[in-house]
TrEMBL record:
InterPro entries hit by this protein: Isocyanide_synthase_DIT1
PANTHER family in UniProt: SPORE WALL MATURATION PROTEIN DIT1
Organism (species): Conoideocrella luteorostrata
Protein name: Pyoverdine biosynthesis
Family annotation (Pfam families): DIT1_PvcA
Amino acid sequence: MAPVATEVYDVSLLPKEPISINGKGLDTKAPVQVGVHPVGDRDGHQAMAERVLAVIKTILLTKLPGAHDKWDEGAPTFIATIQKFIEKGEVVKMCLPAFPWKSANKVEKVLGVLPDKAEEVALARLNGICESIGQFYLPGAELLIISDGLVYNDLLTVSDRQTWAYGEALRDMAVEKGFKHIQFSRLRDLVHLPHLPEVLDEVTYVANATNFRRALMNQFGDPNFDATREIAEKEDTRMTYQGYSRNLGHDLRFIFSRSESRSGKQYKRDVKYLSKQMIIRGDAFARATKKYCPDHLRLSIHQSTGQHKVSVSLLPTDGMYTTPWHCCVAILTDGSIISKPKIEFEFDPRFDLIYENGRPSYFREKEGNDMDQEELDEELE
C-alpha cells in the first residue's frame, strides 16, 4: 500500500504572472490595480481581505483531537489586519517566528545540522501562498520569517554556531530557489544591544548570542508571568507546552540519556521543566515580535484554537510532522510529499536516500514499487 500524501510538490506549476480582476471575472491581459479602491469602498476592501485570508487558510494546521476550534471568532480580527494593508494599496505583510535549527536528535529525526529538502518544501509552500495572493491582489504579499533559534537553542544543547549556520544556509536557499516573497529577521533585530556591528558575521553573532538572550528577557520578560498558571488557564499556551514536551522528549533522549542517576520519571520531569522555560522565553519573544511587527498578520507553527493567531502547517501533510526541522521528507513516485522522522524512512525498503550538494537531503520512493503493507511488514521484521 503506497504512503498517503496530501499535496504534489512542483513549484514550477505555480503561476508566474499576476492575475487581476476587472469586475467581470479574471483577466490576465488587462491588469487592474486591485486593492486601491475608493476610500469609502470598505465593502470592497473587506471582500479582498477575506479572499486573502481564504488563501492563507489553505495551509492551516490540522487541529488535534479535542482541541477547540475558535477560527470564526478570530477571523474578523485577521481580516481587519489584512484590510488595513488593502485600504492603503500596500503589500500584505505577515510574520512567522520559526526555523530555529535542526533537531538535536540527529540519530532518529533529521539528516544533519543544515537545511535540506524539507526546508525547501516549506519555503516553497510559504512563498507559494504569497504568489497566490499576488494573482488577484497586485501589491501582493510578503512573509517575514523571524528566527527564534537563539531564543531556545541553549536549552536544547544546540550550539550558537549551528544556529548561525542553519540561518545562513536558509537565507542562501531562499535566494537560490527564487523565493522572493520571503524575508528574514533575527533576534538582534528585536532587542536593543549597543555597540554591535551593522552586519553580523559568525564570530560577532556567536560572541553576542548570550547577550541577545539576556536582552530579550530584560527588555521583554514579564516578572509576573506564571508559566504554570498560563498553561492551566489558556488553551493556546497549553497546546504549545504539550508540543514542546512531546518534541523535547524525543530531541533530548540521546543527550540527557536515562541512567542510574536519571530515571524515566526524572527524565520526564526534566523535559517538563525545560518546556516551561521555553514557555517563559516564548512569552518574552512574543512581546518582542509584537513590538517589531505591530501591524503584521501573525502566523504560528504551534497548535492553537485559531482565535488569536493563524496556525499553519509548513509541510504538505495531515500528520504530526509539520515542521521541517523535526523530520525528513520523501518524494513519492507521483510527485507528492510525505514527512516522517529519518529513522522511519531509513528502515523502509521502499525509499532511497538522495544527496544534494554532497549532503543527504531527502528520501525518494523507488520506481516500480508495488510492495503492499503485508510484504512491507515481512520485510521489516
